[in-house]
């Protein structure tokens, strides 16, 4: 049994504080500016794109390691096994853990819609005729190397493409990838990474930005992705640069045995906790009960953890992070309202909340130490699994509590995306590999395995068999039609880190809530200026980003 591309992907590691440590340094942009001025002027004046130039440079000799990899023994099309026999093995009985299949009496019926599952609709014979014998180099975290190799065997058999893994130490994945991109000598064709970094990689032109041509040619079902993932994990500057991989959303979860006593009856997912005021009230009541259980779990640790909690709540108050001139709006009424709620909730929170990131929050929730939790959707799926959770059958995931005068805007926060390098020697083969890894059947089975790699497909979250093994799926699916998301801008992760440090200072009583947002806004302006935002313009047009920041406008509520 194996998990495609490992049980812990880029987003999960970033949430754990593993490799989400730095952002694109200023010298990277300075380097690119110097290159443009001193070396690319003549080339660009003839209409050659930077991506094409970088790719041609690699071909001419800067990527000697890549060239040598192409001399590996290749698959012959005639030697490849029957396509259907391979697809038949990408199934519930072969991919989903046996103990989970027994737990839920799962049949081998698909947890996805076969008509939408790309690996079952693409013409593999055509793929083989064009790609068999070629190589794709895939950058993976070193800890994932073994599981990635196992997970990619079916792709190699289906396509005839040999995948050469390029392991990168997990704690330096970002820095190593950026260094290779800047050198113009990336040792990989494709990579998957924390989606908050998308602007850092796409803005300077490090990513292949014509994936749309491949998506059209090979009929990738982009329309099956929820809009928030397609727009925020896939597009930059109006061009398709990635395929969504780990598709997260933050949600609110309640312990039934505790909260039903306080609420006076069974929990209605939409109406029992209609507002954050009510969540504050019931978590305060729960906090008085003792017994080793605190009222609420939330993440308020330094860095992006605290920012994600603030964005989650501020979105419900109608937060717009920027105006249309790229001016940050952190100190708006919505931003301040979120700080007021965080300061109230943290009084009911588990001890050590100011140091809580995803790992600490997950342990407290699954260990039964909190009565409510503000976290990701996998806090619901994993809480169903006896090997991971002490609260099986004693929780429910609810619709997002609302804020008076705000909107229903469940937050799409974190996640990861799959991209092709601008210098790729085989961008089409890299695209096909990533399409395989992100196909709906494999993503559905990741969810069934409760490994934290979340599907972003309508056809998966609407599947009743999938919903039977993923308690949050119905609310999750409904919520995604109204999702809020921070834009994937160059420098965005650095900005979220900086703001979170200030919010954490407010939670620990060092500064006021207002000072936290004011300090954060000052830091954001400085970081944005460093990354090319000035006078209302920047590396990406506001009009290209705006549709993905909130997708719920004008839609009827799901309850």
From TrEMBL:
> Quick one: where is this thing mainly located?
periplasm
Keywords from the named record: Periplasm, Sugar transport, Transport
What InterPro entries does the database record attribute to this sequence? Bact_solute-bd_prot1 (IPR050490), SBP (IPR006059), TAT_signal (IPR006311), TAT_signal_bac_arc (IPR019546)
What are the subcellular locations of this protein?
Periplasm
Q: Family per UniProt?
A: Belongs to the bacterial solute-binding protein 1 family.
Protein name, as recorded: Multiple sugar transport system substrate-binding protein
Top-level taxon: Bacteria
């Amino acid at each position: 049994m194996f998990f495609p591309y490992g049980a812990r992907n880029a987003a999960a590691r970033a949430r754990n504080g593993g490799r989400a440590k730095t952002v694109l340094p200023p010298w990277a942009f300075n380097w690119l500016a110097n290159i443009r001025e001193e070396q690319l002027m003549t080339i660009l004046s003839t209409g050659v794109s930077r991506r094409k130039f970088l790719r041609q440079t690699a071909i001419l000799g800067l990527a000697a390691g890549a060239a040598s990899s192409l001399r590996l023994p290749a698959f012959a099309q005639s030697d490849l096994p029957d396509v259907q026999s391979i697809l038949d093995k990408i199934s519930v009985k072969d991919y989903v853990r046996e103990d989970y299949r027994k737990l839920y009496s799962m049949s081998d019926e698909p947890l996805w819609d076969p008509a939408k599952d790309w690996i079952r609709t693409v013409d593999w014979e055509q793929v083989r005729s064009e790609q068999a014998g070629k190589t794709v180099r895939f950058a993976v975290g070193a800890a994932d190397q073994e599981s990635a190799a196992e997970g990619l065997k079916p792709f190699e058999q289906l396509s005839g493409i040999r995948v050469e893994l390029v392991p990168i130490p997990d704690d330096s994945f970002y820095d190593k990838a950026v260094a290779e991109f800047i050198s113009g000598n990336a040792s990989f064709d494709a990579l998957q990474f924390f989606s908050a970094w998308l602007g850092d990689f796409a803005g300077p032109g490090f990513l292949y930005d014509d994936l749309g041509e491949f998506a059209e040619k090979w009929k990738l079902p982009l329309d099956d992705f929820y809009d928030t993932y397609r727009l925020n994990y896939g597009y930059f500057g109006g061009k398709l640069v990635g395929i969504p991989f780990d598709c997260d959303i933050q949600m609110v979860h309640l312990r039934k045995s505790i909260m039903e006593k306080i609420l006076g009856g069974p929990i209605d997912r939409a109406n029992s906790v209609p507002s954050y005021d009510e969540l504050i009230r019931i978590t305060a009541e729960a906090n008085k009960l003792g017994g080793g259980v605190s009222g609420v779990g939330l993440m308020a640790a330094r860095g992006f953890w605290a920012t994600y909690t603030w964005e989650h709540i501020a979105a419900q108050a109608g937060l717009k992070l920027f105006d249309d001139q790229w001016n940050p709006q952190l100190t708006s009424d919505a931003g301040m309202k979120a700080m007021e709620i965080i300061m109230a909730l943290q009084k009911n929170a588990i001890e050590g909340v100011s140091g809580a990131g995803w790992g600490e929050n997950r342990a407290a929730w699954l260990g039964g130490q909190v009565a409510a939790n503000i976290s990701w959707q996998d806090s619901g799926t994993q809480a169903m699994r006896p090997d991971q959770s002490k609260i099986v059958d004693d929780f429910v995931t609810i619709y997002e509590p609302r804020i008076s005068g705000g909107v229903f805007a469940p937050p799409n926060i974190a996640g990861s995306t799959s991209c092709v390098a601008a210098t790729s020697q085989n961008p089409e083969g890299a695209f096909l590999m990533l399409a395989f890894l992100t196909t709906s059947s494999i993503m559905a089975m990741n969810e069934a395995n409760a490994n934290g790699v979340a599907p972003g497909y309508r056809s998966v979250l609407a599947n009743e068999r999938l919903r039977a093994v993923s308690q949050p799926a119905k609310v999750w699916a409904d919520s995604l039609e109204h999702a809020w998301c921070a834009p994937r801008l160059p420098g965005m992760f650095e900005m979220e880190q900086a703001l979170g440090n200030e919010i954490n200072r407010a939670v620990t009583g060092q500064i006021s809530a207002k000072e936290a947002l004011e300090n954060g806004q000052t830091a954001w302006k400085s970081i944005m200026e460093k990354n090319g935002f000035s006078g209302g313009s920047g590396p990406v047009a506001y009009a290209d980003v705006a549709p993905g920041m909130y997708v719920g406008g004008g839609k009827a509520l799901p309850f």
